[in-house]
Specification:
Layout: H1 5-9, H2 23-29, H3 35-51, H4 55-75, H5 83-91, E1 94-96, E2 104-106, H6 109-121, H7 124-127, E3 132-139, E4 149-156, E5 162-170, E6 178-181, E7 197-202, E8 210-219, E9 224-227, E10 236-239, E11 249-255, E12 271-277, E13 283-284, E14 289-291, E15 300-301, E16 307-308, E17 313-318, E18 328-329, E19 338-343, E20 350-356, E21 364-369, E22 372-378, E23 392-396, E24 407-411, E25 419-425, E26 432-438, E27 441-448, E28 451-455, E29 460-467, E30 474-479, E31 489-496, E32 505-509
Parallel strand pairs: 17-18
Antiparallel strand pairs: 1-2, 3-4, 4-7, 5-6, 5-8, 8-9, 8-10, 11-12, 11-21, 12-17, 13-16, 14-15, 14-19, 19-20, 21-22, 23-32, 24-25, 25-30, 26-29, 26-31, 27-28, 31-32
The structure holds calcium ion (4 copies).
One calcium ion (CA) binds near residues 266, 268, 270 and 321.
Amino acid sequence: MGWTVGQLQRMSPTHNFGHPDYPLITRLLNASAGPRGRDAYFAHYRDLLETEWNWVVMGPQVDALQNLIEADVQADGKKLYSMQFFHDNVTQDVTIGGGPGGGRISCGLKPFVDNRRAYLLGLPEFSRPRPSISGIQVLPDPPGASSPVLVLAEISVSGGNLGDARLFWRNPPSSLYTEETMFDDGQHGDGASGDGLFGGVIPLQSSGAEVEWFLMASTANGESTFEPIHGEERPNSFEVMPPVVPGPVVINEFLAINDSGAMDEAGEFEDWIELYNSSSSTLDLGGAFLADELDPASMWAIPTGTSIAPGGVLLVWADNDPGDGPLHATFKLDGDGERILLVDSDGITVRDLVDFGSQEVDVSTGRLFDGDGPWVTYSEPSADALNAEGCGWRAYGPLDPLAPALGLVGNGSPSATGTVSVTLSGVTPGGSVGLHACFAPAYLDGLLPQGTVLVDPSTLYKSAPLTAGAAGSVTLTLPVNNPSLAGLALYLQALETSTGKLSPGLELVFCP
Ligand SMILES: [Ca+2]
Ligand SMILES: [Ca+2]
Ligand SMILES: [Ca+2]
Ligand SMILES: [Ca+2]
């Protein structure tokens, strides 16, 4: 280009705008084409500047590339420049050649990146405040084919004024985006008017549709932010789930990461799915499907003659090992999260659908009561057995089993004629902790900011205030000696008063 290093470092981001030989940038940035071209251009430019165009990021990449080619450069008998230049030019300008008038300056990579970054960050387009977007929610979760989808986001501009917020969506993925306005008027599922929570609506889409979407918020001046970064190029997405037509058989429990639990006929620890028959008759499941996606071609047909007893369970291995036996589905479960579908033999009617997130090793996810919710996690899975069986202790946790900060275990056999004890751990040494016993469980997410409340406070039987020992644990022993309690169920959860830390849930059903 015949430019000096300094000129290159300070090349305008709108270079060639308006030049008749450069129609693309001219049309993109032309105000008559609407604000989005220019605003989006600068937002993308700024994202690159803030994430990539930084020697902290690029330096190690340059080092890696230099190491990759160094031996070949060394071996090159016809190279134009010395090895000294090969190394020096990464971090400094070098002068190549000489003679009258001096040599040509080859721009050092690091000073170029540093100086151009400093120049760009000083431009008003890249230094004025722009919106921040956080707290994204997509409702319902997962999106279904029976209602539009609401996208919520907290949007604000620190030190500036918000101009507008927009939601862009498309279906199918290769099509053009449709633009929807996001509102903070209290009329779009967005909480109160003017509270900074914005709502935008993606209209009703059909079952199985793959919808891609992103958000763009702009100041009145046009400084813009994408969520996710790169906007239309790398959008968020969701698949529209079909409506569920409940039947007597449901998905009851599953384990997506099995390291040391139930073993299949081949001696392998495999993923599994447990079904439950809530009806009072034996049901033939032959021809129905289990699947991890809606595509009929990928569904696994339950073999003819497979039946499930009334009030009974059926275990299917999700190991993609059809040779291991009849009940081995042709898919596995993704421990990072996916879905399980139970589909009628028509291949269309969805009878049950579980959409799950990231799973932990050897912790199953299941219904707290067989055939019925809420969904909880079990550190002691019950493959091919009822989730709630007989009397005794039963631990259950929130869907994120790692969330509880306190431990809570029941000791010994909980006989109605003996003594019951529970041990709390993980408490602040010497700290106060309450053990709450209720007659019903619950799954109250969001009631306490620290975690999920797993007992129903409206059915409180007793709260026991306890003080932890120096090791942060405490055991409560209760003589029961009341045969009439046999069969009674209590649901226990501990809450540390000062920190709000919660334990998992613990079910106690008194044995005779
Ligand atoms: Ca609002
Ligand atoms: Ca798995
Ligand atoms: Ca297997
Ligand atoms: Ca079970």
